[in-house]
Fold each of these.
Amino acid sequence: MKHIIRLKKMVNLAMKLQWINNDPFAAYKLKIQKVNREQLSEKELADMEKKVFTILRLEN
């Protein structure tokens, strides 16, 4: 959603500078949903520490 917000700002700037004539976002409503993120449990953290990765990038 943050990319859409930034794009909308650029479109508004283009309209102010008269680079475009109409707003493609005129009928679009931004729907920002609040997400409740939970912390990992101790078991989940322990499982991640024990995991052996075959790719060095993931191991780091």
Amino acid sequence: MACEKGLKMKIKILFVCLGNICRSTMAEGVFRDLIEKKGLSHQFDCDSAGTANYHIGSRADRRTLKVLADKGISLPHLGRQISTSDFEQFDYIFAMDKNNLLDINLLYSEVSNPKAKVMMMRQFDSTQSHADVPDPYYGEMRDFVEVHDIVKEAIEGFIAHLNANR
């Protein structure tokens, strides 16, 4: 972590999917919950965004909120679209799938001094490091539960990676 006047700066994480109501919001909620349970909230800030502008200002999908609530997680997030300033403000930007990654990288190319490291969400998933996080939007509740489990596995791997590389 970078230091400024002896103070540790927070690591800033952004989770990105297409509309910012299913996968990225699920990841944001899971990340917030995990770092709180691990006593690491003071070390991180996180947010989520979409590559498209479909759901700006909207709450997460009701099924995302239900899965999170069933795990004891609340999420007050309102949908927003990723912007060029995110590449200067965040340390890590996680794409949920390869199409999102392409869109993120197009926007990344417009930034003159990017700080963020862009990667796939499942890069730290011990079983499926190159796979996409499936989009549950047109699916059933079980698809949202699966997304929860996938992002939790990847986030736990990411946190372990950060701890191992301090």
Amino acid sequence: MERQFSYVMLKPGVLQRRLVGEVIGRIERKGLCIQAMKLLQLPRPLAEEHYREHRAKPFFKDLVDYITSGPVLAMIVGGDEAVAAMRQLCGATAAAEAQPGTIRGDLALHTRMNVVHASDSPASAEREIALFFKPEEMVNWPDGDGRWI
């Protein structure tokens, strides 16, 4: 298995609904390690850069409006196949398609106001992590197996 990092962002709805502990607990129970975390109020230019691949889509403005409407919790999560593990844990983006047992399946009320973002590829993770974190903000520490990640 490949050790890697994923960017994860808990969106304003998670913080407003007081579900941060629930989501972080799921990430940790999956066996992933939190390498960095910070609470942010995203400025609009950063939100637009983060979602730049959606710029031409009709939902772009609503997506940026939502993500800048309140605080978010930005994280770097590490572990074996972290990107794929986080995508599986999150579930389908569309709330109606997300399976029970996933974060979105259990906690998302509306697709447009999704509860969590997770990188969709190692390349996206690298780009997104660089947008939100400086290298010195990431803490490397041994996981439950005693391996350094």
Amino acid sequence: MITGYDLSEGLAAFAVIVVAMVWFVTAYNNLDAAAARTAQAWGNVDAMLRQRHDDLPRFLDACRPHAQHEQAAFDGVLAARDAVFNARQARDTAALGRAESELRAALRQLIALVEARREPAAEDTFAALHKRLVVLEAGLNERRAIFNDAVQQNNGRVRRFPSNVVALLGGFRAVQSFDVERGQG
């Protein structure tokens, strides 16, 4: 025979189980949403990196008439572009940050050489492509900030107790932010 005491214990145990399950599902869904936001933000960063990667050869071609004797500057941009590409493909944000710093420094050096030698009044392909690169860099910086914000939110959920238990069970991992050295772009 079931007494009132046994029934209340059973209902209490059932309520605890239901609450634990609701909490687990909620924590899992929050972790999944944070991971999805991070992945989407990375996709936006990657799209900007791809656009700039594709535009750089045209920009370099436009620079050649103005700095044809500066092969080292061109080589520096190309080497940094390749490093950015390789780090992007590997999704290694630490290497990507370093490569971005190198690319930005190499581009600044090349642009300074070109601007010192070209006619300032000439509105040519160089000026149009330079403007395009500036717009891409601004967009990249904006998207990088959005990605880093998503990473911070994701990593907070993954590392904080008690959701870190769900993260461990669900296979959710912390993500590395995409930082570019200050003063380098």
